[in-house]
Write a structure and sequence with these properties.
Length: about 325
Amino acid sequence: MPLFSTLMHRRTLCILAVLVAAGLAVFALYARDLAKARARVVGRSTTMATSFATMEYAQIGTGEPTLVVHGAAGGFDQALDMAGPLAEHGYRLIAPSRFGYLRSGMPPHLTTAMQADAYVELLDHLGIAKVDVVSISAGAWSAMQLAIRHPERVRALVLLVPADYLPPGMTIHGGILVRAMVNSDFLAWALIKLMPVLPGDMPRTMLGTDAAVVRGANHDEQARVQQVLDHLLPVGPRVAGMNFDVATAAAREPYAMEKISCPVLAVSAEDDRFGTARRARLIVSSVSDGRLVVFQTGGHALVGHMVDTVREGAAFLNAGRE
């Protein structure tokens, strides 16, 4: 018995040692990736004071000024990731981080109308009288408010997968996993790293996109989807903004879309699990000059259609100047 007990004790110690070593290795990988994520957004933007709070923004490209409004879990970086190719079509992209994201403050009692008014202060600061506006997902709320409240400042409006209201009683798309990851850099990192080995519904849960669509995409598109996931980090500086976006979608506040006088292009995919195709159709039918592009597949990430989307967007914006 003493010999058996000694062997069991040694085995337990070995298992514990392996677990500790594995834990340290995982933490080291997490710390490395988080440091890279934080470094990725450093030095690429500047800030300005608004009437509501500090607002961060970045700019790339030259040419026609275009305000690019990011979606949920984003920031100026997400805006430039998604709309960056427009800079190659002769556009100067101005990408603010909405309030509650990255280095933008979180004013008390924030509304999407306040965010829209802050965009006007940014345009005034830059000496820009009128812009095209491109929004992504949850960025549609404040982008539409800008067109409604300040029609003289918006030349044209492009809404990429415009966010829909959450169904009654739902507090967030994706349930417990998404709630966990938006409150923890480590959990977000772990889910992103585990994505290839998790069940097939994970892309649908996190990106509103069926796994089969991602698997069927070419290498470049798969790499873009992975970048979307990787660039969710760091989560910490985005939590306040994400919580506001969820509250906005749950509030189901009506928007006076009939007051939008500029041309509007709404782009979505029929299989977007977040319901943006329905929302895109409603918006286009509610404005005086609307155009709709709905792909049959692609999900919320528009997998397989980003080149087409940029081409459609650029053609739409160019047409408004002819």
